[in-house]
Specification:
It contains six helices and eleven strands. It is of the alpha+beta class. The strands form two sheets. It has a six-stranded antiparallel beta sheet with strand order 6-11-10-9-8-7, with helices on both faces. The protein has a five-stranded antiparallel beta sheet with strand order 1-5-4-3-2, covered by helices on one side. A hairpin with a 5-residue loop joins strand 9 and strand 10. The protein is globular. This is SRPBCC domain-containing protein. It comes from Kribbella koreensis. InterPro entries: START-like_dom_sf (IPR023393).
Length: 238
């Protein structure tokens, strides 16, 4: 079975050297890649520093064959990620589409960090589950606007406002003023042949929130999320 090799393109309002530095400085990568997790540092090492190749100044190929190119573009830089060909690593083929979706999230987190919070640390909250509902979290929360549009809404018990940062086939990203100009990424894939249980995800990127505020926010989101997008059932080992 073959798949078309995806290409993800993000234009960042920052110089090429700043974008490239954000791909090569481990501490800066922590400011945008993924979310807080005990395995984050190991993932960063694997993708960006373990047996990868750098060529032509601003081109990076990761060990699994994903290729990043950073080049000058009107207003800043263009980052193009060309996924490794499907079948190049059979161990990862089952996760190929999930990894592609992850890169869409990550590259927009890169753009957000460089344009809105350069050099600033972040805190994150992450939620995932199966897509058993007939609608994704963005639709349920009333956050399905067009890119650039502004919104005001009650989101999981909190009055928030901001604008739509990006949209893709399965994802929507929104700035959130009340999270220190944070970012909310919501993803949903309906149940289908390749993913019978579907999938849903939320990544909350937070700035200037104290520990108590973050903890309370996390509790509200966990309560809302777990009743709508539960974790997949564990296999029966009996």
């Amino acid at each position: 079975m073959s798949k078309e090799t995806p290409e993800i393109v993000v234009v960042v309002a920052a110089p090429v050297d700043a974008v490239w530095d954000a791909l090569r400085d481990k501490e800066k990568i922590r400011h945008w890649h993924g979310w807080e997790d005990p395995q984050l540092d190991a993932e960063i090492d694997l993708i960006y520093f373990s047996d990868g190749t750098v060529e032509d100044g601003h081109t990076l190929t990761s060990p699994n064959g994903d290729r990043f190119v950073v080049e000058p573009w009107e207003g800043g830089s263009r980052v193009t990620l060309t996924r490794a060909a499907y079948g190049a690593n059979p161990d990862w083929d089952a996760y190929y589409d999930d990894i592609t979706e992850g890169w869409i999230t990550f590259l927009h987190q890169l753009r957000f960090a460089l344009e809105r919070h350069p050099g600033t640390g972040r805190r994150t909250l992450f939620y995932s589950g199966i897509g058993v509902r007939s609608a994704g979290p963005a639709e349920l929360l009333g956050l399905d606007g067009a890119v650039g549009s502004e919104y005001r809404a009650d989101v999981v018990g909190e009055a928030v406002s901001g604008s739509v940062w990006f949209r893709s086939e399965h994802q929507v990203g929104l700035t959130v003023d009340q999270w220190g100009d944070g970012l909310l990424v919501l993803s949903y894939i309906a149940p289908g042949e390749e993913k019978p249980s579907g999938a849903a995800m939320a990544v909350l990127t937070l700035y200037d929130l104290g520990d108590n505020e973050r903890e309370q926010l996390g509790e509200r989101w966990q309560a809302w999320w777990s009743t709508r997008y539960p974790a997949p059932p564990q296999p029966d080992n009996d």
